[in-house]
């Protein structure tokens, strides 16, 4: 199965797109379609969802064409993604609870593990300097309404 | 402010792998805190700075930030290897400047007549122009028409998120109150373009590292022969760029490719191309920048952006309270001309600031990824948060980032999605209005000569790009990447 996906990435991509189309169509059908003289809120979403669905099915069919380029997943992807997205999520959950300085420090720490090799000197410097820098630029310089702590 | 914009733009633009779209998306929130005029001047600085930063890395390191500067690599990098990198940078700066000025003059001359003409447009004409923009942008996409059109359609769906203005019904909000106003474009743009760039570079076993390059001031000065060869190329580049920029979807990428082939065909020594021919830098760089300027013509006078970069610019203009369209140059001449002047100032700043600071930009390139990534992540988060003070928007960045990266991995183009997102509401409104005004007559979509002309032009464009695929510059780009 895994091998199939790797050899035919368009199949998975097409399936994902088709799913988006189905979900969107399902929602669109619950809205008022109206008629040609008074187009309702659901008409345009319905048409576009059907287009997405058709596009998805066509992309699936591309997966079975000759010359489909196999998928190459870079080796460090999981770590890179964990660090980058982890950093963003940590920031989102701490900015209003803890304030800008702790949020930036935590975000910088988590996202610094995204690199293949962690350089602790860089990480420590970032955790100390970035919060101060961003406070000066955004809160003091640009007048962003955030608290430094809490 | 413009100087700050130019510097920030170049700073982000020189970072390997970060293109104009990513740079503008990352820095867009910074301009929100200022009054429209200043914000726009800053943004145009960012825009040109980022475009210029891409050429610097293309010439010195053979790393095209975006496909736009891939052409500059062809002869710019060989020039660097021969010790003429300084000259290539100098000529590319002059070429960019002259191209932009030529483009700005065309922009100033053509926008007002086009806007006057567009005032006769009805809903069906607008609908046709939007269809043309979407099809054109998809036709020039990297991974084929079907994938690009599908992504545009997904963009249209995302554009529908929020309260429908005609009926007051909520659509695709999944009950989230923070989505009633629609999907925030900054979160979408940073997620789709900023993060995937970072992730792609980060996930490589050895992230790109800059070699040591040293350039002294006297290395910049071209010889008399280099001047003699560059000037006519710049002239041709201006023409090619100005024409190509106006065409929806084509933009600066196609302009630079066409200019390169024009230069090679008109050269007495075509064998020098690819080995460090100065014409191969001067022509495409002029064309590229002239096209960036003239791409503003449909954006400003019709309110319909021709590609995803213009879509972001349009969103920024709307955020600053400016709604481009046929009435824009007449109703707000101060802002219209102010904008054009800000383009000129932006380019002038670039000319004045960048050459002396080239050493700094080269040093920026050597910032290790262990430092760069946390900075980009932190700035993205604060940038998005600063727009609406919403933590949901920050989470949306993560969501779109994941989507954007997977889309890239599975060869689905993200730029058409953004274009669909921006054009979606406009498209739906004109779709509804056409039917309303014609009392439900579907033939209204095709019943004026102008509309038929626009659809005809769209079909011609499709045929032309289909033929272009025979020459397949996608294959050419792939070869270069290897």
What structural class results from the helix and strand content of chain A?
A: mainly alpha
Beta-strand share of residues of chain A? under 5%
**N-to-C terminal Cα separation of chain B, in Å?**
40 Å
| Shape assignment of chain B | globular
- Which regions of chain A are unreliable across 5 or more consecutive residues at pLDDT < 50? none
Estimated structural class of chain B: mainly alpha
Count of individual helical segments of chain A: 6
Show the largest interface. Answer: A-B, 76 and 66 residues
Stretches with pLDDT under 50, minimum 5 residues of chain B: none
Q: How would you sum up the global shape of chain A?
A: flat
The radius of gyration of chain A is 23 Å
Mean pLDDT metric of chain A: 90
Count the E strands of chain B.
2
What's the β-strand tally of chain A? Answer: 0
How many domains is the backbone of chain A divided into? 2
Q: Estimate percent helicity of chain A.
A: 55-70%
Structure keywords:
heterodimer; B: 482 residues; mainly alpha; 21 helices; 2 strands; 1% strand
Descriptive report:
- With 150 residues, chain A is mostly helical.
- Chain A has helices spanning 2-7, 9-29, 43-62, 77-98, 100-112, 120-141.
- The longest helix of chain A has 22 residues, at 77-98.
- By secondary structure, chain B is an all-alpha fold.
- Chain B has one domain (2-481).
- Chain B contains 21 helices and 2 strands.
- Chain B is globular.
- The two termini of chain B are 40 Å apart.
- The relative contact order of chain B is 0.18.
- The model of chain B has no long low-confidence stretch (mean pLDDT 82).
- At the A-B interface, helix 2, helix 3, helix 4, helix 5 and helix 6 of A face helix 7, helix 8, helix 17, helix 18 and helix 19 of B.
């Amino acid at each position: 199965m895994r091998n199939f996906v790797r050899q035919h990435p368009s199949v998975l991509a097409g399936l994902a797109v088709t799913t988006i189309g189905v979900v969107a169509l399902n929602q669109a059908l619950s809205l008022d379609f109206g008629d040609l003289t008074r187009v309702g809120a659901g008409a345009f979403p319905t048409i576009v969802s059907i287009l997405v669905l058709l596009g998805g099915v066509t992309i699936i069919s591309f997966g079975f064409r000759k010359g489909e380029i196999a998928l190459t997943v870079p080796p460090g992807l999981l770590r890179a993604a964990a660090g980058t997205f982890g950093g963003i999520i940590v920031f989102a959950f701490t900015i209003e609870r803890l304030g800008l300085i702790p949020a930036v420090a935590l975000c910088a720490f988590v996202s610094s593990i995204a690199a293949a090799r962690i350089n602790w000197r860089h990480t420590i410097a970032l955790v100390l300097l970035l919060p101060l820098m961003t406070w000066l630029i955004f809160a003091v310089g640009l007048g962003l309404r955030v608290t430094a702590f809490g | 402010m413009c100087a700050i914009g130019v510097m920030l733009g170049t700073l982000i633009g020189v970072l390997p792998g970060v293109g104009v779209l990513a740079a503008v998306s990352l820095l867009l929130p910074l301009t929100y805190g200022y009054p429209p005029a200043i914000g726009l001047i800053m943004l145009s600085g960012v825009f040109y700075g980022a475009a210029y930063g891409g050429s610097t890395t293309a010439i010195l390191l053979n790393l095209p930030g975006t496909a736009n500067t891939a052409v500059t690599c062809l002869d710019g990098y060989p020039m660097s290897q021969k010790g003429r990198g300084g000259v290539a940078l100098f000529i590319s700066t002059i070429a960019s400047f002259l191209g932009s000025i030529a483009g700005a003059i065309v922009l100033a001359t053509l926008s007002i007549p086009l806007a006057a003409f567009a005032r006769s447009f009805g809903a069906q004409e607008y609908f046709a122009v939007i269809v043309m923009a979407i099809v054109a942008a998809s036709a020039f996409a990297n991974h084929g028409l079907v994938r690009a059109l599908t992504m545009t359609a997904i963009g249209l769906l995302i554009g529908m998120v929020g309260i429908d203005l005609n009926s007051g019904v909520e659509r695709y909000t999944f009950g989230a109150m923070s989505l009633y106003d629609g999907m925030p474009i900054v979160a979408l743009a940073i997620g789709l373009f900023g993060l995937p760039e970072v992730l792609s570079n980060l996930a490589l076993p050895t992230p790109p590292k800059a070699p040591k390059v040293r350039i002294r001031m006297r290395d910049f000065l071209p010889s008399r022969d280099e001047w003699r060869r560059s000037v006519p190329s710049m002239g041709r580049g201006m023409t090619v760029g100005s024409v190509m920029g106006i065409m929806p979807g084509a933009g600066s990428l196609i302009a630079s490719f066409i200019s390169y082939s024009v230069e090679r065909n008109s050269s007495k020594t075509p064998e020098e191309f690819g080995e460090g021919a100065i014409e191969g830098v001067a022509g495409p760089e002029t064309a590229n920048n002239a096209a960036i300027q003239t791409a503003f013509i449909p954006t400003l006078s019709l309110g319909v952006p021709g590609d995803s970069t213009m879509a972001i610019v349009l969103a920024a203009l709307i955020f600053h309270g400016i709604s481009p369209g046929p009435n824009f140059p007449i109703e707000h001449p101060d802002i219209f001309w102010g904008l054009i002047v800000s383009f000129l100032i932006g380019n002038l700043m670039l000319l004045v600031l960048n050459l002396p600071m080239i050493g700094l930009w080269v040093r920026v390139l050597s910032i290790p990824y262990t430092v760069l990534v946390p900075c980009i992540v932190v700035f993205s988060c604060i940038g998005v948060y600063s727009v609406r003070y919403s933590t949901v928007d920050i989470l949306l960045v993560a969501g779109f980032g994941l989507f954007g990266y997977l889309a890239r991995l599975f060869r689905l183009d993200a730029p058409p999605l953004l274009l669909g997102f921006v054009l979606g509401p406009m498209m739906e409104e004109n779709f509804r209005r056409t039917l309303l005004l014609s009392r439900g007559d579907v033939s209204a979509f095709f019943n004026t000569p102008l509309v038929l002309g626009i659809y005809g032009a769209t079909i011609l464009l499709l045929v032309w790009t289909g033929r272009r695929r025979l020459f397949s510059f996608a294959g050419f780009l792939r070869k270069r990447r290897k």
